[in-house]
Amino acid sequence: MADHYFPLKERFKVAEETMAFVFDISGEPNFSFRAGQYVEVFIKNPPYVDEKKDHRDFSIASSPGDKGILMVATRLSRSTSSGQAGSAFKRSLSEIPLGTVCKIEGPFGDFTLHENPSRKAVFIAGGIGITPVRSIIKDAPERKIPHKLVLIYSNRNPEGAAFLKDLSDFEKMNPNFKLFLRMTEKEGHLDAEYIKNSVGDLANATFYVVGPPGMTQAMAKLFEELGVSRDDMRFEEFTGY
User: Fold this and answer.
1) Which is higher by pLDDT, 53 or 225?
2) How is the chain split into domains, by residue range?
3) Exposure winner among 18, 30, 193, 236, fewest CB in 10 A?
4) Average pLDDT of the chain, as a whole number
5) CA nearest 124: which of 223, 39, 224?
6) Which residues are within 8 A (CB) of 231 and not within 5 positions of it... i.e. 6 or more apart?
7) What distance in Å separates the CA atoms of residue 174 and residue 221, rounded to the nearest whole number?
8) What is the DSSP letter of 62?
């Protein structure tokens, strides 16, 4: 896999303690990826270092149709005593000057949309796990893919839900996409009844779950309760760093 070198073009807040980073990839017009894949980002001579690895994996949040850019996003750690973003890598990425060239390896991964359009795609995302799902949902109408798409997006509250406006806009623009929001502070965690009511026919659907390990494990148990075949489940864990 070839290395790529892209300058950091932009960064902006997408939710409480969550930031998006946009790289300019226009210098490599042949760089391509599939919606749902991830890349590894390296910073040369970062301003902060710690005992953790010198690069991070990020799911791609932009779609292949977003020409000239590659966007990733991450949840910054809870406030530290210094008020800085948690890990050294996150602090570095949050503070390096725009225009700084970073090494990008990839794309990697196969958390991508199934090919059979007769099967509904059901995404269950928790927190920053929304990033690859955003890419897939944006990509589908851009490529005129006829799949029915359902997203159940779970967060503590709306303020912490990354890309919430984008997802609402995608729902308005794509009649094949339905968005369901679950805010756990007021509504509690997802349960089998909520999933069944949101999805409808479970027998003709492929389920994609992306979020922290505790969430993916809980969803696997709920799917068993609902009688979903393991062949119809796909998982992507975000362990955090």
Assistant:
1) 225
2) 3-108, 120-237
3) 30
4) 92
5) 223
6) none
7) 31
8) S
CATH C-level class of 3-108:
mainly beta
What is the bridge-based pairing of β-strands 55-59 and 69-75?
unpaired
From 45, 39, 43, select the one nearest 55 (Cα to Cα).
43
- 171-194 pLDDT tens trace: 999 999 999 999 999 999 999 999
What is the model's pLDDT at position 176?
Answer: 97
pLDDT reading at 5 higher than 70:
yes
Distance CA 182, CA 189 (A): 8
Say how far apart CA 90 and CA 241 lie, in whole Å: 9
Q: Which among 38, 8, 35, 32 is positioned nearest to 20, based on CA atoms?
A: 8
Measured CA distances, 219 to 22, 127, 206, 215, 236 (Å): 31, 14, 13, 6, 12
Per CATH, domain 120-237 is 2.60.40.1730: no
